[in-house]
Amino acid sequence: MKTVSKSQNIDKPREKLEKKGISALTNQELVMLILGSGIKGRDVVLQSSDIIKLLESEGGNISFEKLKSVSGIGTAKAGQILASFELAKRYLMKQNKKIQNVDDVLLLIDDIRDKKQEHFISLTLSGASLLIEKRLVFKGTVNSSFVHPREVFADALTDRAAGIVFVHNHPADDPEPSKADIEITKQLCEAGKLLGIKVIDHIIVTKEDHFSFESAGLLK
Q: Could you tell me which residues come within 8 angstroms of residue 204 by beta carbon, excluding any fewer than 6 positions away?
């Protein structure tokens, strides 16, 4: 019986890529290319199959810890896979992505909903409401000592943004804004007016809910 080596396993998707292009590869073959090789007793075909099953069960929202639970996937390969996914997501996310309402924003910040710490995110927008950049501005307790308009708007000015949306999460699962949230939003709106960058919304998210300052009429 003819045996197939580990190198031959990975050669197949590489050859297919050269002949037919990246879009011709299956999901498993794409993961095989990212992995590059397997380990003794568990080749790249088996490892990639396990990762595809995990992706399907997790709905594509895969964590570092879950990846490391796959047999043969250590810290380096788990990081390699997540880095590949994140890079693709960041570039594809921005491509002609128009922000027209709260739902459009929520699709972009799903990754912070279940964080244990507060994450303060900014989304800079063009005059046509196209996404320019998504940035983590601050991580920790959100208050005026840390979320300062100077730091928040520095990148927006570099982007030549016409508008900006702020989002942060409440780990306690209560989306209602605190006094600090209201005060910070007021300061950011005032700074935006001076800089000519419109604050379009500030949204607070929890695992299942959200609060929009714009919808609540608190940006006027």
A: 167, 168, 169, 170, 175, 176, 177, 181, 210, 211
68 and 109 part of one domain? no
- The reply to whether 37 falls in a domain is yes
- Domain membership of residue 20 as a residue range: 6-94
Contact call for residues 166 and 120 (beta carbons, < 8 A): yes
Mean pLDDT in each 10-residue stretch from start to end of the chain (220 residues)? 49 85 87 84 86 81 86 89 81 73 92 90 93 88 67 91 96 92 94 96 95 93
In this prediction the pTM is: 0.61
CATH of the domain at 148: 3.40.140.10
pLDDT tens digits, one per residue of 118-139: 999 999 999 999 999 999 988 8
Whether 219 maps to a domain, the answer reads no
At position 169, the amino acid (one-letter code) is N
- The domain boundary residue, chosen from 29, 63, 94: 94
